[in-house]
Amino acid sequence: MLSSPYVTAQNSVSVIMLKVAFALLPAIIVYAWLYGPAIIISLCIATVTALSMEAIAMTLRKRPAGAALLDGSALITAWLFALSIPAIAPWWLTVTGLFFAIIVAKHLYGGLGNNVFNPAMVGYAVLIVSFPVPMTHWAAPLSLAGESLGWSAAAHYIFSNHLPDGWTLDAITSATPLDTLRTQLKLHHTIAKIEQLPMFGYLGGRANEMVVGAYLLGGLYLLKERIITWHIPVALLGSLALISGVFWLINPSEYASPWFHIATGGSLLGAFFIATDPVTAATTPRGKLIYAAGIGLLIYLIRMFGAYPDGVAFGVLLMNIAVPLIDAWTQPPPYGHKEVRT
Amino acid sequence: MNETSDKQNISAGQYSNAPNKKTVFQGVLYTFHGGVHPEEHKSASSGRPIMPVFIPTKLIVSVQQHIGEAGRPCVAVGDHVDTGQIIAQADGYMSVAAHAPTSGTVSAIAPHAVPHPSGLPGLCIHIQPDGKNTWVPRTPTDYLNEHPSTLRNLLRDMGIAGLGGAVFPTFIKLNPGKIKRVPTLLLNGGECEPWITCDDAIMRERAEGILQGAAVMRYLLQSDRVLVGIEDNKPEAIAAMSAATKQVDFPVEIVSIPTLYPSGGAKQMIKIITGKEVPSGGRSTDVGVATFNVGTALAVHRAINHGEPLISRVITVTGNVGLPHNREVLIGTPINELLALAGTHPEPVTGSLMGGPMMGFELADMAAPVVKATNCILVKSARLFPAPPPARECIRCTRCADACPADLQPQELYWFSKSKHFDKAQQYSLFDCIECGCCSYVCPSHIPLVNYYRFAKSEISTLKSAERAANLARERFESRTARLERDQRERAERLAQKSAIKPTPDADAAATIQAALARTQAQADEPKV
Questions:
Q1: CA-CA-CA-CA torsion for B305, B309, B311, B313, nearest 10 degrees?
Q2: A337 and B399 in contact by Cβ < 8 A?
């Protein structure tokens, strides 16, 4: 017989996950609007794959699959993963990445709540290490490419890895702003000159900065709904801004501005949606600040001095390792353990 | 900390008896960490006046209604008892008396079902009422002319224990001991549990009695401040108590505090009103505050000013009943007889709780009697109290930590309790958990967190008592071994002494032998002539 309390608030993991999914919708809509419908196809493939793998894993573990599918956690992993990789990534890339996300990172560690590493980021990390070439084939925004793959052409490319006649990969893809920055800097161009390139917009990449803006919108919704607290986004973006700001102030011709770093790549997606994954993040208020500040710092170091185009995945995974230590160190004093003023 | 003064009836200049003492707050309230807003359901029972006492068909008075040692029955089966007669005396220091709630005959002194989370029976004195309700002589006490120690003994013999639920013997809390005086007397009218309105009812209807009881407490504790904390969802109680402050000759501050469960917890209320935290493992007097439930103050007033022991209290009967209400109920009244007066159940009954939904417990047997701790009987139905959805995995969302009024990390405690890492659980301050239920309430995975903490606490207590028993056994064994060794050694020594007596192996003897040897040697050495 259960003891008290005998009442519970109307609240459930499913509702939390659905609100996260809802918060991603503006970005998805903007993404599809500015880059073409490939992202929708990619999200569908990811959703079906992730839910199937979740069901298979739960069945193999002799646990009820239905409840796990309804909790929405696999759906969120699928969407975050799909939004982290190129929208026109071939289907097998999505399946491979999600295998590592759902089966390896999540269920081999004991399933929801027991995984140490962020599943979506494990999937991404495996792909960027193992299949670097297709991971650089980012769809160019419609405003730059002039035209883009429609529904059928995108589906055809994703499933067959062949473009329809008359299309070339170069015509529909483009390097990301972060990649461009890196290669242009190697050619000894100044930041000011690089940012003249047509792919750059007001703050970050053209079109991409609009998607980033939609992530911010979704993130604010999550804050308002108290799905996340302010600690992780503020500390992550704050530390990223601080470190990039220091370099930028020292040498603005070789180091991009803090707002560029915040508005490009996965900074905002990471700050509001990925680093805030409750299972793998630090839990104490001070711990969240340390954890997220560490991610912000690592994002910058990997972007500027590492070999990978963006640092969100590795930043998150590296800080995931530190979470148990951070939590143990940052336990707030309970009631009656604080210094008593007399 | 951001609460402003506009809700409060606090005026400066009330501290004429302590002019140099800086007041802890002047209209500023503090906040405790966390807290939740469960649905209140208080209007169900708060609308009606307190219903009068009734004499049930039988009374079953438990000898263990307070924290501490059980009372010792001092009547025999067949004895006639008058209303208010002591039937069980306080036994040991931490104990209070129990009284006959009405006049009648002692029909049995035997175990009976009692309201307790364990569901185990306890020793009870069964009384068959005679319906006459003839009282023992009642004499008011002129407390200002009595020695505090006499008054405390009187309160013990009047059976007064904390009526907020903890039933700690009140006379012990009214002994300031070495510190001589407790500066602040805080009456707790928080009543933050949903559904319960018994304290609300007595504050509305018996405000002056509560403050008269506070006067006695104030005298015993030598307090210079008297505060009454009331949640702002009880405006009528606040108004009535404020009005009653004019009837007493000492300053009383009625403090309206924001409604937030569990602000009625003593530690939380002390934090709200003084900004101080009772040290872990310590007492509220460590921060200069003594806290009592308003019902306890009323009981003290009845005992001292009217000579009536604690034989009844106001109880809320609510939930799935036809007539939710508050009633003055004799201690010992079978709960099913009390419920019979609350009308028919509108919905199928799915169980009953003693206490509120956040911290109450399921009653195993409805024949169990009302005890001093009984503040509410809450009848459940499937609609009012739906079964919780099945528990899922913890996703470490820390909503529990955000809600915890003890500022603990419930998600960590859950992890350690579940995996039986009891040492870690204690390191994370498991025993500072007040089992208020906020964490379970907010958990999106519907994990019965408090159940895990209760399990861990009881396991740790069991382990500790097993450890104590083992230590005791080891000490006994060691002392026995030592004693046996000592006995053996002493026997051996005695034996050795006995055998040594004949050859007198002492220094003189040795010297004699030595001398004899020397002589012989000398003779031997002498040259033969």
A1: 40
A2: no
Count the neighbouring beta carbons within 10 Å of the beta carbon of residue A133. 6
Structure tokens at B401: 């930590």
* Contact criterion met (CB below 8 Å) for A8 and B388: yes
In this predicted structure, what is the pLDDT of residue B3? 40
Decide: B196 and B231 in contact? Cβ < 8 Å. no
Cis geometry, peptide bond prior to residue B73 (ω within 30 degrees of 0): no
Q: Do B32 and A281 touch (CB under 8 A)?
A: no
Q: Give the pLDDT of residue A159.
A: 87
CB contacts of A331 in chain B (<8 Å) are 409, 412, 428
Q: Please answer yes or no on whether B36 and A9 come within 8 Å at the CB atom.
A: yes
Domains of chain B, by residue range, sit at 25-51+143-313, 394-524
How far away is chain B from the Cα of A18, in angstroms, using its nearest Cα?
13
ipTM associated with this complex: 0.88
State the pLDDT at residue B528: 53
Residue of A4, A58, A107, A326 best to disrupt the B interface, most CBs of B under 10 A: A4
- How far, in Å, are A31, A148, A170, A212, B351 from residue A143 at the CA level? 12, 9, 15, 17, 66
Distance CA B33, CA A335 (A): 8
CA distance A305 to A317: 18
B286–chain A Cβ distance below 8 A for any pair: yes
Q: Are B159 and B99 spatial neighbours (Cβ–Cβ below 8 Å)?
A: yes
DSSP B285-315: GGGTEEEEEHHHHHHHHHHHHH---S-EEEE
Spacing of C-alpha A177 from chain mean position: 17
Q: Is the minimum CB–CB distance between A333 and chain B shorter than 8 Å?
A: yes
User: B122-137 in b/e burial notation, b at 16+ Cβ within 10 A?
Assistant: bbbbbbebeeebebbe
Q: What is the pLDDT of residues B173-229, one digit of tens each?
A: 999 888 889 999 999 999 999 999 999 999 999 999 999 999 999 999 999 999 999
CA A160 to chain CA centroid, nearest Å: 26
Q: CA nearest B33 in A: which residue?
A: A335
Residue A261 CA to residue A299 CA, distance in Å, equals 9
* A135: phi then psi, degrees, rounded to nearest 5: -75, -10
| Amino acid present at A80 | L
Looking at beta carbons, which residues of chain A come within 8 Å of B192?
A: none
Q: In terms of Cα–Cα distance, which of A275, A150, A258 is closest to A222?
A: A275
Please give, rounded to a whole number of angstroms, the shortest distance from the CA of B277 to a CA of chain A: 5
Average pLDDT for A13-21: 93
Collapsing DSSP to helix, strand or coil, A209 comes out as helix
The model's pTM is: 0.85
Classified as helix, coil or strand, B172 is helix
Summarised one tens digit per residue, pLDDT across range A32-51 is: 998 888 999 999 999 999 99
Q: What is the pLDDT of residue A341?
A: 43
pLDDT band at B2 (very low <50, low <70, confident <90, very high): very low
Phi, psi of B32 (to 5 degrees): -100, 160
Q: Supply the pLDDT for residue B522.
A: 72
Give the strands of the sheet with B121-129, arranged side by side.
B59-62, B121-129, B104-113, B80-81
Residue type, A94: T
**pLDDT of amino acid B526:** 61
H helices present in B206-312, as ranges: 207-221, 235-244, 266-274, 294-306
Quick check: A112 and B393 CB within 8 A?
A: yes
CB pairs under 8 A between A and B: 141
- Mean pLDDT for the stretch of residues B95-114: 95
Read off the tokens for B131.
């319906």
Homologous superfamily of B25-51+143-313? NADH-ubiquinone oxidoreductase 51kDa subunit (3.40.50.11540)
